[in-house]
Design the sequence.
């Protein structure tokens, strides 16, 4: 098996048949053997019924259904575990990202001997104030903390060598920081690829501004773990020293 395409989703029943046809059209012409893994993250629409129908008609399609909504990180984690391909691609199910990018990104990954490639939605079809500006700021902070030169850490289109996704531990909402988690495991050959972003065709975004707040908290956690993970008492020792110093000054006065 050359490629596993992992697709986490929540309430995307309207797009699934069209998405599956688009993936097949894009991958068959590439010459890669592939599987598609849909992870239904507790949808309450007809998503799972449609996935079952697609899987019956396509022997390279596998569906996994969660009993409730666990979040994108858990969906990806299960999809990564089930994947059998030498290369693993991720794709959102909302038709805003093109599966045609996947073979191109795999070829680039192989040619440049990379560990992973992240998509970059350079021209986004999103709300300027509610998504573009927060995303710009979020990615700027992520670059500063990690030292990884990516413009779009949270892009749904990514391609990995299988060793990368088998080595990282996804939890909470850490799917946003897979490039950072990969780098922490020694997989630091990371590049980006500009991908075409489509306007949303069906439904509405499940994205909320509170996710940016959680994202910044997660970045802080990652920074703390990276800097003090092996020597956490150094951090608390520093804080204690500062408090003793401040207390001494106050006692003198």
Sequence:
């Amino acid at each position: 098996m050359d490629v596993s395409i992992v697709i986490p989703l929540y309430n995307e029943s309207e797009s699934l048949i069209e998405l599956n046809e688009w993936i097949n059209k894009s991958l068959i012409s590439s010459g890669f053997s592939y599987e598609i893994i849909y992870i239904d993250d507790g949808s309450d629409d007809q998503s799972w019924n449609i996935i079952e129908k697609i899987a019956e008609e396509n022997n390279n399609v596998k569906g996994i259904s969660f009993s409730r909504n666990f979040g994108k990180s858990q969906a990806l984690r299960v999809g990564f575990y089930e994947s059998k391909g030498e290369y693993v691609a991720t794709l959102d199910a909302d038709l805003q990202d093109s599966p045609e990018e996947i073979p191109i990104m795999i070829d680039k990954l192989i040619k440049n001997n990379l560990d992973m490639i992240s998509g970059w939605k350079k021209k986004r079809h999103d709300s300027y104030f509610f998504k573009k500006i927060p995303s710009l700021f979020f990615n700027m902070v992520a670059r500063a903390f990690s030292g990884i030169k990516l413009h779009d850490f949270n892009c749904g289109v990514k391609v990995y060598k299988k060793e990368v996704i088998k080595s990282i531990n996804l939890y909470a909402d850490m799917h946003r920081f897979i490039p950072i988690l990969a780098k922490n495991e020694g997989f630091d050959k990371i590049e980006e690829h500009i991908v075409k972003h489509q306007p949303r065709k069906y439904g509405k975004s499940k994205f909320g501004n509170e996710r940016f707040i959680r994202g910044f908290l997660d970045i802080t956690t990652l920074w703390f773990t990276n800097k003090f993970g092996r020597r956490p008492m150094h951090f608390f020792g520093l804080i204690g020293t500062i408090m003793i110093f401040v207390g001494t000054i106050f006692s003198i006065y």
Q: What stands out?
A: Residues 26 and 156 are 17 Å apart (CA to CA). Residues 230-246 have pLDDT under 50 and may be disordered. The first helix runs from residue 16 to 28.
